[in-house]
Specification:
Blueprint lengths: L5 E10 L8 H7 L4 E8 L6 E10 H12 L4 E3 L5 E3 L19 E3 L7 E3 L9 H5 L5 E3 L2
Antiparallel strand pairs: 1-3, 1-4, 2-3, 5-8, 6-7
Length: about 140
Amino acid sequence: MNTIEQVKRRVVLTFPRFIGGQPIITELIREYELEVNIYRAQVTPNEKGYIAIDIIGEESQIEDGLEFIRSFEIDVNLTMNTLLWNKDKCTGCGNCVPHCPTGALYVKDNRSRPIDFHGDKCIECLCCIESCPFGACTSMF
């Protein structure tokens, strides 16, 4: 028996102002037979909105579903991360490093002490936002 592999994609959707009120997520579930988990959202009427979701299904169904989303002029970000680290605002104080449980924020070189960010390690706990006195860490939400 041939089984089709289920995959999971984490995506961030950026909705333009005019899109509110349309059942786009419902369509992903019904029409494309995808499992959708919304893990963060900021949607306000008449403003730009953001939704971070996990989509689970067959690769071809996910691709078709993402193409459907794009047809509404919704930006689909596949970076899997809503944390924003601004290297220019970072002073290298290192206050964020001990608060980062996964090592996504780390000291790149012990001699010069610059901080660097590995987005793929980030679990979006957002501890860095509160621990950064210079606003180098922010969230899309």
